[in-house]
Amino acid sequence: MLWPKFGAISLCASVALALPRSPASIRKREDQERADAVKAAFQHAWDGYKQYAFPNDELKPVSNSFGNSRNGWGASAVDALSTALLMGNQDVVDTVLEHITTIDYTKTDTEVSLFETTIRYLGGMLSAYDLLKGPLSNMATDYTKVDALLTKSKELADALKFAFDTTSGVPHNNLIFANRTYVEDNGSNGLATVGTLVLEWTHLSDLLGVSTYQDLAEKGESYLLNPMPTSNEPWPGLIGSDISIEDGTLQNANGGWSGGQDSFYEYLLKMYVYDQSRFGQYKDRWVLAADSTIAHLTSHPQTRPEVTFVAEFRGQTQSLNSGHLTCFHGGNFLLGGAVLGEQKYIDYGLALVDSCHATYNATATKIGPERWSWDPENVPADQQAFWEENGFYITVEYYDLRPEVVESFYHAYRITGEQIYADWVWDAFIAVNSTARRGSGFDAIENVNVEGGGTSFDNQESFLYAEVMKYFYLTFAGEAEWQVSKDGKNAFVFNTEAHPFKVVGGS
Ligand SMILES: *[C@@H]1O[C@H](CO)[C@@H](O)[C@H](O)[C@H]1NC(C)=O
Ligand SMILES: *[C@@H]1O[C@H](CO)[C@@H](O)[C@H](O)[C@H]1NC(C)=O
Ligand SMILES: *[C@@H]1O[C@H](CO)[C@@H](O)[C@H](O)[C@H]1NC(C)=O
Ligand SMILES: *[C@@H]1O[C@H](CO)[C@@H](O)[C@H](O)[C@H]1NC(C)=O
């Protein structure tokens, strides 16, 4: 229940209590303060970017310079747009909308990742279009710039779509626009890079009323929904990580919920959330993968048997490793449990949320590492005590401003309503704000397990704006139709870059 924690109900709130309003409309004062603190942090990061990097892709906050790792189209600006909208930050919204009208998506000198471009740029523009045409139309100060979001999305998809021009229809991922060729990719593409296009390309098709873009993404995805050979599906629904571009066959039986595979599983469920009438098969595949994960990948570390990790796999052999990217899984199981009305997925999701929290709670900075292991055979001598206390040891020690742990805390808070999860989000915000806030913005840090986080990377990824700040903010921002809903009926679904898309048939 959203009651003030420390007694003192303001006059305003007590008047509100007398009225028949939903509990959600009664905001806790501490939530308001926390939401405002997140907005201030977002503004700080934006101001640094605006001053030293805009309209380039990302801020280098320590040297006050910029990088262009995402084709030089202004990745941070486009990624910041949906968060700025949800925060009601009109100044940032107007700046980014103006910028988008100036981008030429047909040209770039650098290699283009189909996957990264889809989730950040296409996702960012389509989400802003939904919000500005829908619940945030009050923030649309210039309708031509709102319509430009859709025409620019089409321009971008048209520039990218030669990627799918292959014998099987499985796309190449790394593209060279100048001569419409591909970077040498040994004839295969990854599970996540093939399987994390269908939401954005389908939504674009739906908005334009033409099937072209959906057809392209669904053709590539079809090999993942009907995987061959069956030997590379070691358990029902859990499949290998490498796809032949020539014929769509799986090249191995190695995988899991970690980086490189992760958002394929995420989107199986989210396609169903997006449109239950069209994507029932995706839901069925998610259920198979989720049940196989519970049955075959659940793993409890020897030194902390109450902790629940999800192992990676090589065939039917577990590999006792996980990582920050993997920690979206708690939120995904929670979403699945709410949407499908299945308590077992909620319970499992909460166990995963606890274990991801444990990786944050264990370190000197209170931020979790990039990768860890709980394989008792390989414990480094200098982490013996850490392993015994925490049930895992760190194998890759940096933090790259990733969102997944907070994303799962957010889902746990929305779906259970329990304050502890909001407090964990706040703890993570305080940790990131005190350790990774450096120079003119936020920075990846070298080592989460030394006081202060060690040396700087001098790089602020665009997903700091799209994801990290958004999940921090939404936790404290109160009810709105874009929030993940406890009852499993969602009007919006978040793409893997946390850009909310209006679902089909949603109110
Ligand atoms: C396309 O351009 C890239 C980068 O300039 C170059 O390495 C490659 O050889 C070119 N491919 C063809 C077929 O011209
Ligand atoms: C192709 O390259 C990727 C990335 O280096 C690698 O993971 C994959 O195993 C390779 N696939 C084949 C069939 O050699
Ligand atoms: C977090 O770590 C502290 C010790 O630093 C411990 O007392 C506490 O119980 C841990 N919290 C959780 C939820 O495990
Ligand atoms: C975040 O960090 C800034 C700079 O150190 C500080 O002024 C601000 O109070 C911090 N926010 C919170 C909520 O601690």
UniProtKB/TrEMBL annotation:
Recorded metabolic or biological pathway in which this protein acts: Protein modification; protein glycosylation
Enzyme's top EC category: hydrolase
Pfam families noted in UniProt: Glyco_hydro_47 (PF01532)
Reaction catalyzed: N(4)-(alpha-D-Man-(1->2)-alpha-D-Man-(1->2)-alpha-D-Man-(1->3)-[alpha-D-Man-(1->2)-alpha-D-Man-(1->3)-[alpha-D-Man-(1->2)-alpha-D-Man-(1->6)]-alpha-D-Man-(1->6)]-beta-D-Man-(1->4)-beta-D-GlcNAc-(1->4)-beta-D-GlcNAc)-L-asparaginyl-[protein] (N-glucan mannose isomer 9A1,2,3B1,2,3) + 4 H2O = N(4)-(alpha-D-Man-(1->3)-[alpha-D-Man-(1->3)-[alpha-D-Man-(1->6)]-alpha-D-Man-(1->6)]-beta-D-Man-(1->4)-beta-D-GlcNAc-(1->4)-beta-D-GlcNAc)-L-asparaginyl-[protein] (N-glucan mannose isomer 5A1,2) + 4 beta-D-mannose; N(4)-(alpha-D-Man-(1->2)-alpha-D-Man-(1->2)-alpha-D-Man-(1->3)-[alpha-D-Man-(1->3)-[alpha-D-Man-(1->2)-alpha-D-Man-(1->6)]-alpha-D-Man-(1->6)]-beta-D-Man-(1->4)-beta-D-GlcNAc-(1->4)-beta-D-GlcNAc)-L-asparaginyl-[protein] (N-glucan mannose isomer 8A1,2,3B1,3) + 3 H2O = N(4)-(alpha-D-Man-(1->3)-[alpha-D-Man-(1->3)-[alpha-D-Man-(1->6)]-alpha-D-Man-(1->6)]-beta-D-Man-(1->4)-beta-D-GlcNAc-(1->4)-beta-D-GlcNAc)-L-asparaginyl-[protein] (N-glucan mannose isomer 5A1,2) + 3 beta-D-mannose
Chain residues that bind Ca(2+): T496
GO CC aspect terms: endoplasmic reticulum; membrane
One GO process term, biological-process aspect: carbohydrate metabolic process
Protein's UniProt name: alpha-1,2-Mannosidase
Protein species of origin: Pseudovirgaria hyperparasitica
Phylogenetic placement of the source organism: Eukaryota, Fungi, Dikarya, Ascomycota, Pezizomycotina
